Amino acid sequence: MENDLMKNIIIIRVSEDLSYLTKLGWFNEQGGGSLRSILLRSLLSEPTFKVTVLTRESSKARGSIPSTASVITIADSYLLENLIKAFKGQDAVVNAITSFSVAEQHKFIDAAIAAGVRHYVPSEYALDNNTPEAQELSPVFKDKATVQQHGYTDSWLIVPRSPRNSFPGLHYPSRIITFTDDGEGSFSTTTLDNTALALNRVLLNPSTTANQIIFTSDFATTQKELVETIERLTGEKWERKSISTNEAIPALKKRWENGEAYAGYGLINIGFTKGTYSGHFEPVGQVRNKELGLLKKNLEQVVKEALAEVGHPGFCS
Ligand SMILES: NC(=O)c1ccc[n+]([C@@H]2O[C@H](COP(=O)([O-])OP(=O)(O)OC[C@H]3O[C@@H](n4cnc5c(N)ncnc54)[C@H](OP(=O)(O)O)[C@@H]3O)[C@@H](O)[C@H]2O)c1
């Protein structure tokens, strides 16, 4: 349908700054981790879309924005009138704002409505934030749920996460995995490639996904299965450590309340890996990978790709 066509897309900048990943010890310290500009590059690869990036004055990442994207720079305060001006003429807003600022989105949604934007994709890429357990665990999950409830005509959401480079407790350089309790909690995973592809597909077919939470999962796994797969493929033994959630959750909450941002990531990590915080979609929800035409992936293939990315001997092409 012609009037369903999303042509002008504005994306709230996704960072190229990966320095903090090293501090977190995620699997791929060279280039995995956050969503970075993967969503942006994917949107730019779709000829139908005319993509604009909204970035803050203080942004250090402006130099890395491809020249095929237009750029609008606004003051860091994200004033409502500036947002409305930036959103005028756009068909869709894709927000990928940093985790600890997701609550800013109430303003972004109001601006999108005022500017006549038809679709708004919130900064999600998470577990199902609508359960009391998830909201109680992490302020970020709670903020994301509140944003969903803000209400927006014709809005839709995507709820995936990526498997190897976000939060599964892996530290490749020291070959250590830190289990959340016994490491046997099941969680759904979506690779970065498929996350970006899902975004494009949803924007290309907005009528089929409007006002819905879109669950995707390339496969479900556990931390234990993940490390056993790495060991089987590489022949190397990894050290197993574990955190007790009974002790870690109250300690992390206290540190978070004292202003320690990284404690917030610790809570998010537990949410993803414990298995009881609505991050395992297959048993409860409709997974939409097939309908969206996403690439088929399996754990072994993804682990091999990750080993190649970190330059593990025998896996580089
Ligand atoms: N499921 C997963 O595995 C997973 C993994 C990572 C992220 N996520 C989710 O994906 C979304 C994007 O996360 P991300 O890690 O890609 O974000 P990020 O790299 O930390 O930040 C994204 C952008 O937010 C903008 N921003 C606005 N206000 C900011 C502030 N006060 N401090 C820092 N940046 C600010 C910055 O853009 P400018 O500087 O250009 O203005 C920045 O580049 C979040 O909802 C996050 O929770 C999910």
Percent of residues in helices comes to 25-40%
- Describe the strand arrangement of the main beta sheet, using strand numbers: 3-2-1-4-5
What characterizes the major β-sheet?
Answer: 5 strands, parallel
CATH topology: Rossmann fold
CATH-level-2 architecture: 3-Layer(aba) Sandwich
Residue-averaged pLDDT, rounded? 83
Write out the CATH superfamily name.
NAD(P)-binding Rossmann-like Domain
Tell me the strand percentage band: 5-15%
Instruction: Report the strand count.
Output: 12
Name of the CATH class: Alpha Beta
Extract low-pLDDT stretches: 14-33, 153-166
Intertermini distance = 43 Å
> Structural class of the secondary structure composition?
alpha/beta
Present as ligands are:
NADP nicotinamide-adenine-dinucleotide phosphate
Q: Which of globular, elongated, flat, extended, rod-shaped describes the shape? A: globular
**What is the domain total for the residues?**
1
The SSE order reads EHHEEHEHEHHEEEEHEEHEHHHH
Measured on Cα atoms, how large is the radius of gyration?
A: 19 Å
